[in-house]
Protein 1
Amino acid sequence: MKIFAETEHLILREIVVADTGDMFELDSNPEVHEYLGKRPIFCMHKARVYVDYIRMQYDKYGIGRWAAIEKKSGAWIGWTGLKMNFEEEMNGHQNYYDIGYRFKPRYWGKGYATESSIAARDYFFENFPNQKLCGLAEVENKASCRVLEKIGLARKADFYYEAEDCMIAWFESYGVTP
Ligand SMILES: CC(C)(COP(=O)(O)OP(=O)(O)OC[C@H]1O[C@@H](n2cnc3c(N)ncnc32)[C@H](O)[C@@H]1OP(=O)(O)O)[C@@H](O)C(=O)NCCC(=O)NCCS
């Protein structure tokens, strides 16, 4: 199992099929989906589809979301990291590199999204020099917007997202000066 990065509190590793149960626990929780269109999943099959999609991204684009494992407990706490977004146009962008994160609620508020996203950001700029890294979050998702801001992405626009009837904040960067 490939480890992509290690931080003070987390191991960031490849997502594997054996993670499907944890993925289901994460994505079936309505609290987690509050700012994700309010569509938690209801079956393991859908969680497996998510895992397969991430693994396809590793093969096709050389990136993908990573499992975050809390070092002190060994717990699978959620996912973090990168994605090539080729599906839906957002804010005039198609085929863009996205940074994101999604954790089980009991692990919120510990700085893990920021810590893991710094590692993912650094991995991206090392491996994809001169490419743009984007991040987006519902404007009302203050924690997520704050994480994107803290890792050094610039908030470039707020736009209306008709599919979910909400305002989205768009962040981006071509590199971060330490
Ligand atoms: C968004 C999410 C990943 C944040 O994870 P986290 O590990 O708690 O984030 P961190 O602890 O690294 O940082 C959160 C920051 O937001 C701030 N914050 C949290 N809730 C906030 C709120 N309601 N208003 C303002 N700021 C808030 C925190 O204080 C912290 O900033 P600080 O370090 O300056 O104090 C987590 O809440 C989650 O998994 N949510 C569900 C999935 C999701 O919404 N993903 C993002 C989709 S765009």
Protein 2
Amino acid sequence: MKKTAVVVGSGFGGISAALRLKAMGYEVSIYEKLDQLGGRARVFKKSGFTFDAGPTVITAPFLFNELFQLFGKDRSKYVKFVEVEPWYRFYFSSNKKTFDYSSCLKKTEKEISKFNNKDVIGYRRLLNFSEKIFNIGFNKLSFVPFHDFFFMLKQIPTLITLKSYLSVFQLVSKFIKNEQIRQAFSIQPLLLGGNPIETTSIYNLIHFLERKWGVHYAMGGTGKIIKGFEKLMKEENIKIFKNSEVTNIVFDKNVAVGIKVKKRKISADKIILNTDPAFTYKYLINTKLNKKWNKKKIEKMDFSMGLFVIYFGTKKKYSKIAHHTIWMGKRYEGLLKDIFNKQILAEDFSLYLHRPTATDKAMAPKNCDCFYVLSPVPNLKNNIDWKNYGKIYQEKILIALEKSILPELRKNLITCFHMSPSDFKKDYNSLYGTGFSISPIFRQSAWFRFHNKSENFKNLYFVGAGCHPGAGVPGVMSSAKVLENILKNE
Ligand SMILES: Cc1cc2nc3c(=O)[nH]c(=O)nc-3n(C[C@H](O)[C@H](O)[C@H](O)COP(=O)(O)OP(=O)(O)OC[C@H]3O[C@@H](n4cnc5c(N)ncnc54)[C@H](O)[C@@H]3O)c2cc1C
């Protein structure tokens, strides 16, 4: 008899785990609450436009390739990746300056020199230091389990040498003097749910990760990767159940033995959760044996910010707008404090604007443009009434874009809708409607983060943003590699 595994949730973490377990010989089923796979990487189709709901920046392509290679298949036959140029364009609304960050180091250095010539050398040094962090943080620690405290202790001297006690912003500031370039090179934690001022500088490894493998786009959108994985899973006989919310994990004392879906019990040898661990421990694990992560401890954790995302299609083409634009507002540290510490919705904002039609015309009808714009906002701990305020906030952002880089935007809209933290809570079962589960601060990283192997229960495992190594597509796909390592050694 083959061993059985159920995977709950079909984000990039859940799908990667399902495929890895299948390749290990398990009979695998995947249960997803929504009517499509992908989790935060799902797709909205409206009025001829294709909107990727979440991740758009594809890095570390080898992680995708590996999953196809497990079955002797070639990723490029399922989905094509192309490199984006420039990687990101920063637009500083205070002085209307732009900074193109690109695959060509020379071009990037020339752009830096528009702000401060001396920072060119600083950037080279930052990149060198990021490579050192990458060699440890990504190559050595991203794919190994962190549930052994002594293993964690052994890493501390190296983490100190790498200055992991500094925040991303503090480390960048040691190398870069210009305030705007400091901002540009320290925003990466925001892509993972962290405050650059507080997130451990181990995340500076992203600088080198981007340089090593580039910044890519999947033709047809990120949703096309999910479609490719869905096809692969069907070919490999992984059973897929959509519209199937798991309401409980079933235990026999301290052993996880199954899940409950629509009041039906489904038994399995291994239960893999791709759900938000904070939500799961609070609502899906109803046993007194849950000692490590009881409700009180969950409440005390530090949660990532929320996201307000507006999806819109225009009948005008904005050909000068890059694929990825980071639209920086007037404040940086003050705004971050408002979002993360004071948890208030500020009058101003900084934005990430996605225009996939810069690379891929098929995402919109002919002569039209497809966009989403994302604003980091406080999570639901602050009780913002998004049902009423959502439309007002949406309008404020559209006006700001219209006045700066997208002239006549509102009269050219064909379709426009948004997702607020309330939708993240409802659709993804995300505690406090966060964009990225718990935040990636030092005291919630590695051993201190939710473990990939449950501390209290046998046969129960986690993959995805809330557990080690953390959020972001490379992070959650790596969590499935960690799981594979755990299971191989059990
Ligand atoms: C707007 C946005 C933009 C982003 N941009 C990028 C980017 O450009 N690059 C990048 O690398 N990362 C990006 N990220 C982060 C990245 O998308 C996420 O960290 C990652 O996709 C999360 O994957 P996951 O495996 O944790 O699962 P999730 O995507 O969170 O999926 C979990 C799934 O489980 C389902 N589920 C929950 N509870 C249950 C239940 N009880 N029963 C059944 N199903 C359940 C949920 O509905 C969901 O479908 C972005 C995130 C967002 C929101």
